[in-house]
Specification:
Helix content is about 5%, strand content about 40%. It is mostly beta strands and about 725 residues long. It is globular, with a radius of gyration of 28 Å. InterPro entries: ConA-like_dom_sf, FA58C, Galactose-bd-like_sf, Glyco_hydro_43, Glyco_hydro_beta-prop_sf, Glycosyl_Hydrlase_43_Enz. Keywords: Carbohydrate metabolism, Glycosidase, Hydrolase, Polysaccharide degradation, Xylan degradation.
């Protein structure tokens, strides 16, 4: 009997372990769906006249350094995106438009503020006669409205939000990483110039426990409610908290039921925070960002959601219930029914995400399910890719609206229609399109049962054909604002040649009389030049490069198809007698200095630290080895990236993986074997290295491993 009980317990433990390791699959979205189709963060919600506006950080574009953007809507359900015209600084070409806020001034003009960290972490101000711009500088000499080191030395001036009190005074609240910097800051905005802060003061840490960033002040009755974000924006700990006071300057008393918004157990809300609040007909709504699903590493891809905010009294906020009532449900819309909602869909391909954490399909049906949390994504970054909708019967069609994955980049495409699914005619030809936007709106007047979207190209290298939603309408309707974006002068992005671009083998070099002729046998050609001392030797039948004091640098430019989000594979046989905790770069091909942003740099390493496998310059994005390859033995190390997932293989087995969107900067970079662009020399031996401009699959990697295995490991 005791043995039987023991066996049962062991069975339960094993079963529990199996289920505990189950990968995350498809996620039910339903009522917790984001309100915007795309990657946006730090939302500020405003209502000017009868139109709602959401100003946000454009996320997942070079580490939240995308275009200055605004979304607008009249019904809170159908949102339209516009890239705003914002002048750059004289000294710096602006690319950070972080955490924007906007004020309607007493003069009827609109004042836009946002943070930027290219010339110190400052808040800059702009003015326009329209909520969507174009914008003019508040200070022509580029003086910040709130400067770095204000109100005290070392204080980063980011995440500014403004509050207008009943008496007309305007207060600013700002600060990030405030747990390191002594708490948030508050000051009064000069209402004459709208460009200066006076009477700044620090809010002591104990008045806002466990803070991180994103202070937001609102008033309920006679109480001032200071809401803020705690935890870390990179993971599930991010949350919304609050304190209250009788004065805009405090002192503030922490809420008794903090945090009021956190990650939930179902995974539908992960890392919520950095919010603003909309008051509508006596009700309050919290508009915040949360992480995408499947989650991009480091929280790079955030999406905007809204839920009702309920007060028990003027100083107590109830816990937010994700999926609660939204204002759009009670607002009349002029948009007719979407004829493609839940229609049958087929596609040329779709992406199956397989990683350590996920087993998730970006199904074609997600393009017509009406949700902003799901999308169809093609299987790889090749073009063309197509998506075909079956409406079920011949239907009159006047408008098609397409929401591509990235609102800030253009897509080139065409729309066709058919009655039988065989004979096609053109509904709209956007094959030369260079204007970004979401949704892309195309009008005609046809009768069809089938609609085919063919994605031909994208502005940026390595992006996949992907659609959040495609909507079909039988009648035309007014768009809230008749504004149009400007065409891009860049792109389309370079394409993969699906070739081996780098190939060098120490055995082949050793067999030659002249061992200084280090020719690249890959498709881009060129010669590897020795920088420092790089020797070649043979021991126990294995020839290898010794990189202890040098590196090999290719005399050819890095191919443009490796820039931005371009796919690649790096495969190498290496042995290192001693493995350091940092450094040990095997291959570098990006410029780490041009933007100094984590996902603009990537390189393959072999060390025991946080970026032991892949360096992205920030521990929130680097990828280490789960099982560090043992010292003083030959290992086949392979890094692949297919435009969605980075995967690290050791000796033919998947060791680690993570979802990433890259912005690789290759313009001034060199392909460098055995060291990074700042040194970080590899201290061991390398038998061979190959690089491809596409992602090899596991079977290809295992075949390559056997084909290139050094002699010693064959014995």
């Amino acid at each position: 009997m005791k043995d039987r009980v023991l066996y049962i317990l062991l069975f339960v433990m094993v079963l529990g372990n199996v289920f505990g390791q189950r990968k995350k699959g498809q996620l039910p979205v339903g009522k917790v769906d984001p309100i915007l189709p795309g990657y946006f963060a730090d939302p500020t919600i405003k209502k000017f006249g009868d139109t709602y506006y959401i100003y946000a950080t454009t996320d997942n574009e070079m580490l939240a350094s995308g275009v200055p953007t605004v979304w607008y809507s009249k019904d809170f359900e159908h949102w339209y995106n516009h890239t705003m015209e914002v002048p750059s600084l004289e000294s710096v070409n602006l690319r950070n438009f972080w955490a924007p806020d906007i004020i309607e001034g007493s003069d009827g003009r609109y004042y836009l503020y946002f943070g930027n960290c290219q010339a110190g972490c400052n808040i800059y101000g702009y003015v326009s006669s329209s909520p969507v711009g174009p914008w003019e500088k508040l200070n022509e000499d580029d003086t910040p409205v709130i400067a770095h080191n204000y109100p005290k030395e070392g204080f980063p001036s980011l995440d500014a939000q403004f509050f207008t009190d009943y008496d007309g005074k305007i207060y600013a609240y700002w600060g990030t990483w405030v747990h390191y910097n002594g708490g948030y800051a508050v000051g009064e905005l000069d209402s004459e110039s709208m460009s200066k802060i006076k009477n700044p003061k620090n809010i002591p840490l104990e008045q806002t426990p466990e803070p991180f960033e994103a202070a937001y002040l609102m008033k309920k009755g006679e109480k001032y409610i200071l809401m803020y974000s705690g935890g870390s924006c990179h993971d599930e700990t991010y949350n919304v908290r609050y304190s209250y006071s009788d004065s805009p300057y405090g002192p503030f008393t922490p809420g008794a039921n903090n945090p009021i918004l956190s990650s939930n157990d179902s995974g539908t809300v992960h890392g919520p925070g950095h919010h603003s609040v909309l008051e509508e007909n006596g009700r309050y709504y919290i508009v915040y960002h949360k992480h995408d699903y499947p989650m991009t590493r480091g929280g790079l891809s955030r999406q905007v959601s809204v839920d009702e905010l309920i007060f028990e009294n003027d100083s107590t906020i109830q816990q937010v219930v994700p999926g609660s009532k939204k204002p759009g449900k009670s607002i009349k819309s002029n948009v007719p029914d979407n004829l493609a909602l839940n229609a049958k869909v087929s596609a040329s391909s779709f992406y199956q995400l397989e990683s350590h954490e996920y087993d998730y399909a970006y199904r074609p049906s997600y393009a017509t399910d009406g949700y902003n949390a799901t999308m169809w994504k093609a299987s790889d970054n090749s073009f063309p890719q197509d998506l075909t909708i079956d409406l079920g019967k011949p239907t009159r069609i006047k408008r098609i609206m397409t929401q591509f994955e990235f609102a800030g980049y253009y897509y080139q495409y065409k729309l066709e229609y058919s009655l039988d699914g065989k004979n096609w005619e053109v509904f709209a030809d956007r094959s030369k399109n260079r204007v970004a936007g979401s949704p892309m709106i195309d009008d005609s007047d046809v009768t069809a049962q089938y609609i085919k979207l063919t994605v031909l190209d994208t502005e940026k290298t390595g992006l996949l054909a992907a659609v959040w939603n495609i909507k079909v309408f039988g009648s035309l309707f007014d768009i809230p604002l008749e504004i149009h974006g400007k065409p891009s002068i860049k792109g389309p992005g370079a394409k993969s040649s699906r070739q081996k671009i780098i190939s060098i083998n120490a055995q082949e070099v050793f067999a030659k009389k002249s061992r200084d002729n280090l020719t690249n046998k890959g498709s881009i050609g060129g010669i590897f030049e020795k920088k420092g001392e790089v020797s070649i030797y043979q021991k126990d039948g294995v020839a290898a490069f010794d990189f202890k004091k040098g590196a090999l640098v290719l005399d050819q430019p890095v191919p443009k198809r490796l820039q931005w989000n371009g796919a690649f594979t790096v495969a190498t046989w290496v042995k290192n007698p001693e493995i350091s905790a940092e450094g040990e770069c095997l291959l570098s091909w990006c410029d780490r200095f041009k933007f100094n942003l984590a996902n603009s740099y990537n390189a393959l390493h072999y060390n025991s630290g946080n970026y032991g496998a892949v360096a992205h310059l920030d521990s929130h994005f680097d990828m280490k080895y789960n099982n560090l390859p043992t010292a003083n033995e030959w290992h086949h190390i392979v890094l692949t990236f297919d435009g969605v997932v980075e995967k690290m293989y050791v000796n033919g087995k998947l060791d680690n993986s993570q979802i990433m969107v890259l912005a690789s900067q290759t313009e001034n970079a060199k392909l460098r074997i055995g060291a990074s662009d700042i040194g970080e020399k590899f201290s061991g031996y390398m038998a061979s290295l190959q690089m491809y401009d596409y992602a090899l699959n596991k079977m290809d990697i295992q075949k390559l491993m056997q084909k290139t295995k050094p002699s010693e490991s064959k014995n």
